[in-house]
Write a structure and sequence with these properties.
Blueprint lengths: L9 E4 L11 E7 L2 E10 L2 E6 L23 E3 L6 E3 L5 E3 L12 E4 L2 E4 L5 E3 L9
Antiparallel strand pairs: 1-9, 2-3, 2-10, 3-4, 5-6, 6-7, 8-9
Length: 133
């Protein structure tokens, strides 16, 4: 998990909305000034979140909205070129992503839900900043 950033915690979803290695929760952020989609998954009992951009080609990873994991539910796989990432760390483990890693977003699970933390590079999206669908 990335360390909490300087921004105020943003409510993401209820904790039980994220099943172990299940469908991701999608949300919109502004990353380096661009409106993009991000996602959160539960992996090995903890929540992780990433910007939805492949390291190899700046395209969204999911093959259908919210589905990022391979058939064995072990790795995040880019639907465009097959770059493969460790679900828990975002580190590239195969395909054309080299030594890269997905851009992590700091998250925290509390009794009342899951929260994410903005950083200097990633901020909450205003209504006018929503990522294209």
């Amino acid at each position: 998990m990335a360390e909490p950033g300087p921004g105020e915690a943003q409510f993401l979803c209820a904790g039980d909305a994220l099943a172990e290695r299940g469908r991701a929760h999608l949300f919109d952020v502004v990353w380096h000034g661009e409106a993009v989609r991000a996602f959160a998954l539960r992996v090995d009992g903890r929540v992780v979140a990433y910007v939805n951009r492949c390291v190899h080609v700046p395209s969204e990873l999911d093959w259908v909205p919210g589905e990022f994991l391979d058939a064995q539910r072990r790795h995040i796989v880019c639907a465009v070129h097959g770059a493969t990432y460790e679900a828990g760390s975002g580190r590239c483990v195969g395909g054309p992503c080299g030594r890269g890693r997905l851009t992590a977003i700091a998250v925290e699970e509390r009794a009342d839900g899951v929260y994410w933390y903005p950083s200097p590079e990633i901020r909450p999206a205003a209504r006018s900043d929503r990522a294209p669908t």
